[in-house]
Amino acid sequence: MKGKILVTGGTGYIGSHTVVELQNAGFEVIIVDDLSNSTAAVVDQIEQITGKRPDFHQFNMQNLERLEGLFKGAGNIDAVIHFAAYKAVGESVEKPLLYYRNNLLSLINLFECMEKFSVRNLVFSSSCTVYGQPDKLPVTEQTPRQTAESPYGNTKIVCEDIIRDYTHANANIQAIALRYFNPIGAHPSALIGELPNGVPNNLVPFVTQTAAGVRAQLSVFGNDYNTPDGSCIRDYINVVDLAKAHVIAIERLLDHKNLSAFEYFNVGTGAGVSVLGLLSAFEQATGQKVNFKIVGRRAGDIEKIYADTAKANEVLGWHSEATLEETLLSAWNWEKRIRKM
Ligand code: UD1
């Protein structure tokens, strides 16, 4: 056993893939998740993939008493990866207090427990949303953050600030924030993947559901952007590659007792892909035609963003590996499995 890792939000999309990679790397995992956007069956699937069952606790991290009880009962926790948060952009605009209360209080409660039980290491799930629409591409970690477009995005900015201030004030705690670009795809076993509640907001689940006949038609939001084919450009990162970046970040924290208190890294592929480009890659990879039409722009969308990954490559020694086609095929295989196709 290399260490005991608490993964908050460990049954969610990125969390579950990270638990698999942690267990495969020899770590012992404890999960806390309130199942607000996932199901307990994910724990079974993780066990099926890895042959090990993570220790699972169901509650919301706003409950400080439950969280303290978990830290107390768990014994020595070596590090925490904090995914647990609400993430629906549109809902956050309608219910900002729900988002601020949940996403900020969960982190604050976590730090209180880490301090009380002498847990030194944190990896935080951040997002390229903190950069807004940058002036210069690709974005490096030095690119200035911008005022968030949504309360959801702002919780990522404020959580990063809380971590910066807290690690500054507390010499015993060090942290790494990973700023994800657009995570897509599923585990090659097709046993875990992205399972959106209701109508998907994100592109790839909408694409796979349309190909599976669950949705009649995909709307492509805008073809009049200043990009080669007019559709928006993003950096789509394979979820297993992303999960591996968390394992490396954990190993870095456990190996280094004197990191500068807070580090952050972009996690993307470095390649910008348009919405229309992604659709043709999907058709190429899967042989499935996707019924789509071009509609107006979606409010709040930025035109283009992709990562400069040099810092993650050089400092973490992490590289994205999967091709876009492999990743889209994994998303399709997952969709087919859950639709029993
Ligand atoms: C969105 C969030 C971002 C969050 C991320 C988490 C918004 C504005 N941003 O990023 O804050 O961190 O998810 O994964 O919601 N598209 C279509 N048709 C669709 C869906 C999407 O054309 O039905 C296009 C979008 O216009 C965009 C691209 O696909 O150009 C990717 O969209 P999406 O998957 O929602 O991710 P982001 O908007 O980049």
Bound molecules: uridine-diphosphate-N-acetylglucosamine
Please tally the helical runs, counting DSSP H or I stretches of 4 or more residues: 11
The average pLDDT value, as a whole number, equals 97
Whole-number radius of gyration?
19 Å
Distance between the termini: 39 Å
Short synopsis of the structure:
This protein has 341 residues and is an alpha/beta fold. It is built from 11 helices and 13 strands. It is globular.
Task: Provide structural commentary.
With 341 residues, the chain is α/β, with parallel strands linked by helices. The chain has eleven helices and 13 strands. A seven-stranded parallel β-sheet has the order 3-2-1-4-5-6-11, with helices on both faces. Strands 7-10 form a two-stranded parallel sheet. A two-stranded parallel sheet has the order 8-13. Helix 6 links the parallel strand 5 (121-127) and strand 6 (174-180). Helix 1 runs parallel beside helix 2, helix 5 packs parallel to helix 6 and helix 7 (203-211) packs across helix 11 (324-338). The longest helix has 21 residues, at 96-116. The model has no long low-confidence stretch (mean pLDDT 97). The chain binds uridine-diphosphate-N-acetylglucosamine. Uridine-diphosphate-N-acetylglucosamine binds next to helix 7 and strand 8.
Helix and strand layout, with pairings?
Elements: E1 4-8, H1 13-24, E2 28-32, H2 41-50, E3 55-57, H3 64-74, E4 79-82, H4 89-94, H5 96-116, E5 121-127, H6 151-169, E6 174-180, E7 182-184, H7 203-211, E8 218-221, E9 233-234, E10 236-238, H8 239-255, E11 262-267, E12 273-274, H9 275-286, E13 292-295, H10 310-316, H11 324-338
Parallel strand pairs: 1-2, 1-4, 2-3, 4-5, 5-6, 6-11, 7-10, 8-13
Antiparallel strand pairs: 9-12
Helix pairs in contact: 1-2, 1-8, 3-5, 5-6, 7-11, 9-11
Bound molecules: uridine-diphosphate-N-acetylglucosamine.
Uridine-diphosphate-N-acetylglucosamine binds next to helix 7 and strand 8.
